Structure to design on (893 residues):
């Protein structure tokens, strides 16, 4: 659960390189890019994020990629608040990829809110201060005699005023105030932050206007499909490109050699046509020959069997967390509880299949339109692949039809660059089929755990052991297959032994919404529920016992700025809140049962209760989910916030009930929505959400509501049936 | 040989093979990109259009199968009263997250309400279950449909 485990270090390194070093936001984010010699009638740029036109229209730059998390609306809301703007006059423009001008631009890790909360407030306040300074100069009055009302500077005593539009060009010539000198608004005075504001692009979306990456249209554009090996780790021996070239509509077909990095470019065959459907159809005649090396024998079943052998074999290869004397705790235990848990590979399956558009321009610049969660990292990867300096690559950020972590990897960007560089002057749009998407993902790693708890005669937990079997992802800079040694409740155990074995693999793995946590919440909260049951209590009671006497950990400097450590009071508050909401402990309807789950991830504390029953055919039915969340002292946009939590909960239920990618013959068996069945409307439960406000700056909501719903569901099924779900997805034959 | 199709009340000539699904003709032959590609096998509903008022999956509808039937797409939705009401309800409820599937959701919802102005909860589920929303905005989609259907109800009374 430490921040370090959820952050892509590769991305960090790449964007740091672009910035020429340091990554500290305050140091690298320029607050102001001055308009020099601006014409009075032209819009004036007051800061890198704020431009004001004479007609009072305010353009605010949305800096971070929009994947549906609402950030293109919420970050400009923060700027507009401190600017004291009239929201009705605000326009939002998506930034291009530009580290020097906008600082880090990424959509991942629920980072955007904590990372940008203060800088966005400061940039708004900077522009406001410059507008006030302009009015003071114009009227020859002291700054202190002036204030603002939405969209205008007002002299307090006389009531005279000037609109921001009238003042903007003069304001742009004012000295840039020191960030330390800025007065930020009192939270009680917020009138934009905290308001339910609809997504800024929504009117375009309901009209079907072009807005997503795959909607990019350029004159003379052609479409590409990419054939790659279904077996991960394979290399291409050859393919019949001439046969593909003879297919209707096909413009070209050629072999592309990988660069040895699965997250950038693997071997394949590009087929380019006047229409993507024609390009994709022509793949069927390529008859590619692959060298699968050792990898075609790999399978989920094989990994699972090996994991069991390793766990049965006793001592694991590595210890990654140890405290006290676990062996002694077990030897002296009054009771020992042990259980094996497992979870599968998962695909992301964002609705908009992977795609990217690229044009190799005559001036040697690769211009790209990229639906990427890490466009700065993608830019760096493309520049490196092409062997050109970063300024020879331009990346326009498009809206994305979902991300969920898939678009943190930019393989489709490098792929289209490899194709477009062969066709200078012709824009190329690469599109993946859904089959390509499901079968060429960076999967949520599968994993296996053997957990053991020691209990004393009073039923108190005295120690915890986990033998974890995971995958060796080599020198992967971001490793979603690793478990942090401080995963709850490890730090609060007197005796602890966390050990792991690693399996060799070529399966690409990556971050899926709430990486690590989406699996570990299931494992740890289900196992704790087992321990609670063995000692005759419920899970909330056990959690309260575990955190009894625990102290709040100190705030540390993390990737997103000051990051508060674990705070047991926040756990207690969300737990109590959700117990109240769900009337925990009171009788429920006949044939129904409740289950509880808690998790802290991405700086958010969430406790959730799920109400389940079984249908006559023993199918799991989720009726209600109650959710209490603490993401600090302020919900920036209640519309977006509730949407993220509702979506996370349904996403988690879908994962628990019906999703898995199985590896067979070294390839993914699943390929499309018939065998990777995402949740649909009829399985949507009633969802009840309340916020617990704590005295911390607001943090992100893209992820932390997901992890606890999975154990809450499986714990409810135990309460209902007495059968313990220890492997995902839920096998309903357990209840037959 | 060009194929003639009536789309949004306009006659369009499309120079493409008859096996080409309507989706790819709309998006890349005619430049109408509001209709979305999601799965290519009729399983997700992102590509939903109306064919003589019925919701159909354009990824699985070959051009040659359209004949005289009239195609209507998301770009034309605001021309119908129900379509416009649903678009407004989508904004009022702030239905969407990423928004990619919403054109298909709106087309399915419009076809539903055109047939059945006041659907029950179960009828909404049944009509909409072919449309996947990966962000899982189902609660709000349902609320938005119910909102428009209640208005219908009031008008009818």
């Amino acid at each position: 659960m430490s921040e370090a485990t959820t952050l892509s270090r590769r991305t960090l390194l790449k964007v740091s390189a672009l910035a020429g070093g340091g990554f500290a936001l305050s140091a690298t984010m320029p607050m102001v890019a001055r308009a020099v010699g601006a014409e009075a009638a032209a819009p004036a740029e007051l800061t890198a994020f704020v431009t004001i036109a004479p007609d009072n229209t305010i353009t605010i730059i949305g800096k971070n990629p929009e994947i549906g998390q609402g950030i293109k609306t919420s970050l400009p809301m923060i700027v507009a608040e401190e600017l004291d703007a009239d929201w009705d006059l605000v326009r939002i423009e998506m930034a291009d990829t530009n580290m020097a001008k906008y600082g880090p631009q990424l959509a991942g890790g629920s980072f955007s809110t904590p990372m940008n909360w203060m800088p966005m407030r400061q940039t708004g306040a900077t522009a406001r201060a410059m507008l006030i300074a302009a009015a003071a100069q114009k009227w020859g009055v002291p700054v202190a005699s002036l204030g603002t009302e939405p969209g205008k500077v007002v002299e307090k005593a006389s009531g005279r005023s000037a609109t921001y539009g009238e003042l903007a060009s003069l304001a742009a010539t004012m000295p840039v105030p020191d960030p330390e000198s800025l007065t930020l608004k009192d939270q009680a005075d917020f009138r934009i932050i905290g308001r339910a504001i609809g997504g800024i692009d929504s009117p375009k979306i309901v009209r079907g206007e072009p807005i997503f990456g795959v909607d990019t249209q350029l004159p003379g554009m052609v479409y590409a499909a990419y054939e790659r090996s279904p077996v991960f780790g394979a290399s291409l021996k050859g393919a019949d490109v001439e046969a593909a070239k003879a297919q209707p509509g096909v413009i070209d077909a050629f072999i592309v050699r990988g660069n040895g990095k699965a997250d950038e470019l693997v071997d394949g065959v590009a087929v380019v046509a006047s229409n993507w459907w024609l390009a994709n159809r022509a793949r069927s005649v390529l008859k590619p020959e692959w060298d699968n090396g050792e990898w075609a024998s790999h399978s989920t079943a094989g990994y699972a069997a090996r994991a069991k052998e390793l766990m049965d074999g006793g001592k694991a290869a590595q210890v990654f967390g140890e405290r006290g004397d676990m062996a002694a705790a077990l030897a002296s235990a009054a009771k020992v509880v042990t259980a094996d848990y497992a979870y599968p590979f998962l695909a992301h399956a964002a609705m908009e299949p992977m795609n990217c558009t690229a044009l190799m321009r005559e001036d040697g610049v690769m211009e790209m339109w990229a639906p990427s969660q890490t466009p700065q990292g993608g830019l760096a990867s493309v520049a490196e692949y092409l062997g050109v300096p970063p300024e020879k690559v331009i990346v326009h950020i498009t809206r994305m039809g979902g991300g969920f972590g898939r678009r943190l990897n930019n393989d489709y960007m490098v792929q289209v660059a490899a194709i477009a560089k062969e066709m200078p002057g012709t824009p190329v749009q690469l599109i993946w089929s859904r089959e390509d998407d499901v079968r060429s993902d960076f999967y949520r790693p599968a994993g296996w755990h053997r957990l053991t708890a020691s209990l004393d005669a009073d039923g108190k937990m005295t120690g915890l052991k986990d033998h974890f079997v995971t995958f060796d992802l080599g020198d992967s800079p971001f490793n979603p297959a690793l478990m942090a040694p401080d995963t709850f409740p490890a730090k609060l155990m007197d005796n602890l032994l966390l050990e792991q074995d690693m399996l060799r693999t070529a399966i690409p793995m990556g971050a899926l919404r709430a990486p690590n946590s989406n699996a570990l919440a299931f494992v740890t909260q289900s196992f704790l529920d087992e321990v609670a049951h063995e000692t005759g209590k419920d899970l909330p009671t056990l959690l309260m016992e575990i955190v009894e006497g625990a102290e709040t950990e100190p705030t540390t400097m993390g990737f997103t700025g000051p990051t508060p450590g674990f705070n047991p009071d926040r756990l207690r508050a969300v737990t109590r809140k959700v117990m109240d909401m769900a009337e925990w402990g009171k009788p429920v309807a006949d044939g129904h049962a409740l289950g509880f789950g808690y998790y802290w991830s991405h700086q958010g504390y969430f406790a959730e209760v799920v109400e389940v029953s079984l249908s006559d055919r023993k199918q799991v039915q989720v009726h209600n989910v109650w959710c209490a969340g603490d993401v600090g002292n302020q919900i920036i946009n209640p519309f977006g916030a509730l949407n993220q939590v509702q979506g996370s909960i349904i996403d988690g239920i879908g994962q628990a009930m019906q999703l898995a990618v199985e590896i067979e013959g070294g390839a993914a068996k699943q390929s499309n929505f018939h065998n990777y069945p995402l949740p649909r409307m009829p399985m949507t439960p009633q969802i009840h959400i309340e916020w617990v406000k704590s005295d911390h700056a607001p943090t992100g909501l893209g992820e932390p509501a997901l992890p606890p719903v999975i154990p809450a569901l499986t714990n409810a099924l135990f309460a209902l049936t007495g059968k313990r779900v220890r492997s995902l997805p839920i096998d309903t034959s357990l209840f037959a | 040989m060009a194929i003639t199709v009536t789309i949004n009340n306009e006659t369009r000539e499309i120079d493409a093979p008859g096996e080409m699904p309507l989706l790819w003709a709309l998006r890349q032959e005619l430049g109408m990109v509001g209709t979305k590609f999601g799965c290519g096998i009729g399983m997700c509903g992102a590509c939903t259009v109306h064919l003589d008022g019925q919701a159909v999956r354009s990824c699985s509808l070959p051009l040659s199968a359209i004949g005289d039937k009239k195609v209507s797409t998301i770009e034309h939705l605001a021309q119908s009263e129900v379509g416009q009401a649903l678009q407004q309800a989508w904004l009022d409820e702030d239905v969407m997250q990423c928004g990619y599937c919403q054109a298909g959701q709106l087309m399915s919802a419009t076809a539903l309400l055109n047939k059945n102005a006041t659907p029950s909860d179960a009828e909404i589920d049944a009509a909409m279950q072919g449309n996947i929303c990966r962000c899982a905005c189902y609660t709000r989609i349902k609320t938005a449909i119910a909102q428009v259907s209640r208005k219908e109800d009031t008008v009818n009374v």
In short: The domain at 300-346+442-735 of chain A is CATH 3.30.365.10 (Aldehyde Oxidoreductase; domain 4). Chain A has three domains: 8-206, 213-293+354-431, 300-346+442-735.
